[in-house]
Amino acid sequence: MSSLLPSFWTDRNVFVTGCTGLLGSWLSEALVNAGANVVGLVRDTVPGSRLNQTGIVDRLTVVYGEVEDYLLLERALNEYEIQTVFHLAAQTIVGIANQSPLSTFETNIRGGWHVLEGCRRTGRVQELIVASSDKAYG
Predict the structure, then answer these.
(1) How far is CA 125 from the centre of its chain?
(2) How far apart are CA 46 and CA 4, in angstroms?
């Protein structure tokens, strides 16, 4: 990422949801190494996550909360003057989705909508990247 446009990420304010996941931890590390000011949304502290085990968590600003919390998202996007958002947070495990469809809906649908709405309302966000996984296809 930094080799493509090194100056683009320097001092850029970036918000990453799902930063404790596999993709999110690698992305957060790449962004920090490229000079971005990374703000990561963390729902739960997971000591075994790559983000914590590698110490990447100490190199970014952490906002504790959930994508379902619209007011928290709006505050974080405004307070940290976010320019770019990577929305990676989701409940991706099909078995859990089948057992708990309401919480999956809240996270994946309502949470996604809150991220989109927060970006729209702040007026400062210039890019929004939404990623999914192979689990979305069963």
Answers:
(1) 14
(2) 32
Terminal-residue alpha carbon distance, the chain? 29
d(CA 101, CA 86): 24
Please count the residues of the chain.
138
Among residues 4, 10, 5, the alpha carbon closest in space to that of 83 is found at 10
Which amino acid is present at 135? K
User: Which whole-number Å values give the CA distances from 36 to 30, 50, 74, 135, in the listed order?
Assistant: 9, 19, 20, 29
Name 127's Cβ contacts closer than 8 Å, sequence gap at least 6.
83, 84, 85
Distance (Å, whole) CA 97 – CA 90: 11
Please give the average per-residue pLDDT across 73-79, as a whole number.
98
Kindly state the percentage of the chain with pLDDT values over 90.
67
pTM of the shown model: 0.89
Q: Is 19 helix (H, G, I), strand (E, B) or coil?
A: coil
